[in-house]
Amino acid sequence: MINVLSKLPNVSNSIFSTMTALANEHGAINLSQGFPDFDCSPKLIDLTQTYMKKGLNQYAPMPGVLQLREKIAEMVEKQQHAIYHPDKEITITAGATQAIFTAIASIIRPDDEVICFDPCYDSYAPAIDLCGGMVKTVSLLPNSFNINWDDVKKVFSHKTKLIIINTPHNPTSATLTDADMKQLIKLTQGTDIFIISDEVYDKVVFDGKKHISVASYPELRERSFVISSFGKMFHITGWKIGYCLAPEKLTVEFRKVHQYLVFSVNTPVQYALADFLMDESEYLLLSKFFQEKRDFFVNALRSTPFEILPASGSYFLLANYDKISDKGDLDFTKELTVNYGVATIPLSVFYKNRLDRHYIRFCFAKKHETLEKAVENLARIK
């Protein structure tokens, strides 16, 4: 028998795989995993087919198709007033999760410390562990899920190498502000600390607010990897395509890892996206599109016993179920799936210490009829 010593001994199947499988088994409505149940633009599909038929089906350049990187640079300059060189500072990736892993792998060495904010997206810690780094968590404030920057200062040490932020935030839907960015500047100035800014929902911010990016702050831009996702932007999560913005020195290190991890990304899709980005309305109207879904879902949920928390961005919202059950959130989500036909995600899985405050996460990136049916089921809860 071969003895396998796991590099991730505490990792099993993700909660997203678990809840989706349970939803499929019981024919439940899947509001757990973060993907839409509606199609992307037919125009984007047609563009992709056009480039396939043109024979652009072989390897793309390692950093990505230049036309797409140029369009990203234009978009970022218009929206964030930040200039990134298309050839030297933008890299196309096989989704945002790959970009996050690549950024971590490019700078983290054994015993380096990385500050993450709990609850957080579940790919951060395993990537840090695989690189030999140490995760230092700072809990977001209860209910508001804002950052207490004094708590951040307390975990700083001479080993701190990286801070990972996420705005709009998954799973809490909170967004960072200009005041947060200024605090981050104060904390990192005069240091060699890097930042990964996970901004995959940057086009989905509600109530007239503007997305605040580290790219807009020169003091942060110089030390940051900014990660975004076309999957989230254009309802094509299954196409697995994203990008990383970083100053040239960081991009050089990023691409050293990227070239041996995936080398390059789907060629015809890149050409199609470059053309698709020419119509700015395709992404400028996303906030309005998803806010309508958020408002529809929140209003419908008022017929249920759930307490809904405000959602400032992304296509998730949190709900407290204290009025319904005293079960742990994992057991409660399984009960919802099996008995009421609605699959959700327990918030505790996003915490390093599995803190359970009886919150669950809904994904509302669904058709109105899907959300209506889900609420009908949830309204049966007494």
TrEMBL record:
Cofactor: pyridoxal 5'-phosphate
EC number: 2.6.1.7
UniProt cross-references to Pfam families, sorted A to Z: Aminotran_1_2
Record domain Aminotransferase class I/classII large: where: 29-378
Keywords carried by this UniProt record: Aminotransferase, Pyridoxal phosphate, Transferase
Database matches in CDD domains: AAT_like
Annotated GO CC locations: cytoplasm
Gene Ontology molecular functions: kynurenine-oxoglutarate transaminase activity; pyridoxal phosphate binding
Keyword Acyltransferase: no
Family annotation (PANTHER family): FI04487P
Family per similarity comment: Belongs to the class-I pyridoxal-phosphate-dependent aminotransferase family.
Protein name: Kynurenine--oxoglutarate transaminase
Taxonomic classification: Bacteria, Pseudomonadati, Bacteroidota, Sphingobacteriia, Sphingobacteriales
